[in-house]
Prior knowledge:
The chain is an alpha+beta fold and 1012 residues long. Helix content is 37%, strand content 28%.
Amino acid sequence: MKTALTRDKAASGSVSGEGTKAASRRPGRHPVDDSRIHGLIAEYSGHVILHLRLVPALKFEYVSPSSYQVIGYHQEELYTDGELLLKCIHPEDVDAFWGFQHPPAIAQEERRAGQEKPAENYHTSLRWLRKDGRIIWTEMNCTIAYDASGQAVAVRIIAHDITERKLAEEKLLESQKFIRSLLENAPHAVVVINPDTSIRYVNPSWEETNGWTLNEVTGLKAPYPWWTDEDRETFSESFKVAMERKGKAEVMARKKTGETYWIEMHWAPVTHRGELQYLLVNSLDITERKLAEQALKESEDKFSRAFHTSPDLMAIVNVESGRFVEVNESFTRFSGYTSEELLGRKVSDFSLWANEEEHALIAGLLAGQGKMRHVEFHLRTKSGEIRTWLSSTDTIKIGNEPYYLIVATDITERKQALEALRESEEKFSKAFNTSPGSISISRLSDSVFIEVNEGFIRDKGYTREEIIGRSALDLNIWTDSDQRKGIIRRLQAGEQVQNERVRFRTKSGEIRTGLVSAELINIGSEPCLIVLNTDITQQQKTEERLRLLSSVTQQVSDSTIVTDLDFKITYLNEAAEKMFGYSASETMGKSLGLFNFKPLREQTSRQIMKTVNSGRVWSGTARKKRKDGTAIYCHCRLSPLYNEKGQIISYIDVEHDVTEQKEMEVKLNDQNRLVESILATMPEGVLVINRNDQIILANQAFYDIFHISKRAIGNKPISDIIPRDKLSNLYMAVLLGQKANNTLEFRYLVGGIEKIITCSIVQMDDERLLLTFIDISQEREEEEKLYLTDRLASLGEMAAGLAHELNNPLTGILSLSQLLVREDMPAEQKEDLQCIYDEAKRAADIVKNVLLFARNNNFENGHASANEVVREVLRLREHQEKTSNISVVTQLQEDLPRIAIDKFQLQQVCLNIILNAEAAIKETNNPGTLTVMTKRVDDNIDIIFSDTGGGIKKNVLPRIFDPFFTTKEIGKGTGLGLSICYGIVVKHGGKIDVRTKVNEGSTFAVRIPVAT
Length: 1012
């Protein structure tokens, strides 16, 4: 390869290949050895630079020092084993790497024509295997050299690590896939409209509902063809208002077929920094609901017929007047009064109440609660007979007026039958009814329950009416019916049954655990079984939870810390010890703030205390400190712990190390805003769950429908939020792909009110399901960027190597040139030698400055003349500026005092700034002007450099003094120049100000104090 660096030549800064013509010697003009500069850049570039000889065998001719940091192999390892390259390339990418060995057809034509095949470049991205086995992605630029026959004989590789970028791209792709899946599978119609009313996007549900496709409507502007002719003019005006604020409405729409239907629209404008981005419209077909409202009227007639034909006594009474409005036939039959006698008259006009105390009790219940359930009372019929009734009453509204709907069942015969039984129970009735445990009495012959206490009703979840007269087998209470039979056999054999552990089933299907004691008794010569059951389910769960927590707390990967009320540490788990580097004994009794990187602000501390003392969990991301002083970022959750009396007795702090946080949060923000906008405007509740039944995402409508908070969900499975028997069969059928109809309607009790809810389940992908809930009864941006960098870690090592490689030859140049100057020789030659000596001395000082900058040492004390240094540097650059068509204007104030800075360091500052100014002017491809001024301002000297170049862009300006930051092409800049200048000036008590304007130029003002 003609341009390949050899190992020995690279160390001395030379490049093999054709030589350059010697620069003509002129006083004050000195040739620059570009090959040496390029060699140094290759040596200390952050990229991996490899020169590989392919024939006769693989052999590295040059390996840059950065190879160790990137691929883990030292230079010596690669120099001694050329085949090692094959181990660095991932096996699956080796063929792609060797693709350059097959020259293109045009190259073959050139060979046949007798032309020499020039070097070729190709660019690719490959996976590399580090020495430690870790896989990284690299971006490679390869230059291949061919011999006269067209055979590839050498290759130069320049590669850099792009692993983080690859991972970020994969994260972004996953997020886009998730959002697309959410929109594509949404059961409701979604439309996204641009600010100019053009259609930006419609989802498949919208296409299915309306008949138009996305391709047909994209770019279409209002008025739209789905607006009805009657509403077109009205919609045009209201559409402007919709662009400004969110809202909802029920409107008539038209499908592509011409069919009209009703929709409920929810719209919301999405803005960014006060500017409208798009209008998001969600619509739901409510045609069925509208038809249902019409059907409701028809159902009222059905209700009237059911009212009058019911076997139970039913009556409607006006709350205000107490007058009968309606009674059914059962009421007239049981009471003995005709409807003509009752309607329009007050209840108090009849001697219906046999017991005034019962009357007062019921009146009080209705006045206080507006309803009653299963209340017994005694009524007197027209004939004077007193009968017993079991009644329930609700308050209803008819024409905005309140009425009582009374339903009663005659239980006179049942009460008389129970009276005889009550006489035999009198000795233990009080204990039976007041016992906190569950007690039941059932006939031995058929297991039918004849009595249960309130504890039984509470434990099993049934009402008394559902239990009495039915058997345990009918209700499926015993999970193991053979266990019940075994208890009976033991009792009949004369054995005792005390505190035997059993499992029983409640009305909801929940399996609970109890301790059972049983006896055989006779009631009215009938053998019966009396069972006392004490529910220990909660106690058992608590004991298991305590055991589990004790084990899990030590095994969880998150740091868990418990403190007292003064935030003094009382407990530290093993994960916390590993995370922070302290042992538990070292932290006992110390403040939780021990782990804070810096003290919390008072406002933050007050907010945390207010949150946890109100019983809520405080969470946030904070910077923490390990024992060795290193900083980490943790996501913290601080929550209170209570005793059995509900009092806060301590706090628990769970911290998760999030130092390696995703770097794509900024790119995901826009997509997150879109998801949040969609979810916030959806009229139905939305859940995304995984295959483990755990909730991944929920919107506000879901919380509103089920009357639960976001905190209540946490990481719970959906079965903890909605009883599993509601969704289990449908959920499993959809998951297994066995059910075509994926919609379920069920009833759900929320806050004492039963709701009717429809649920649709769609499988988004192999891991996630989308559930949407619609209540048909009444028909999130915080993040913190984490950007950590440590690019100066190897600067000291680089400076030491630079000094070793350059100081030895520079020392020889300085010594020999100084000796030659003393020799008797022509003045012109002596002047050239003096120039060589001065420039070599300046180069040695530059090496020293790089070392000082890297090691953060103090600069040497010295004094310099600003005007003298400026003139010398401009004289040095005079030739280059003339050849580049750059005019130099100087405005140097005379008689300036000397400044407190070493002369050679000031030369370095001025030279770096002037070189940057020249480069900026050359990039414009036009003649330019460089103006240099000096002046005294109080006790400071200002040196001002102004150029007419292209200026500095706003996004680049904040980083121009960062080490290694450069906007120049590879090989044209290291990014250290301005950083070193800034370090020199600041260390001498000065400062550098920059003023710039794109396409007009830049001004650098260096201010340094006057020497004292």
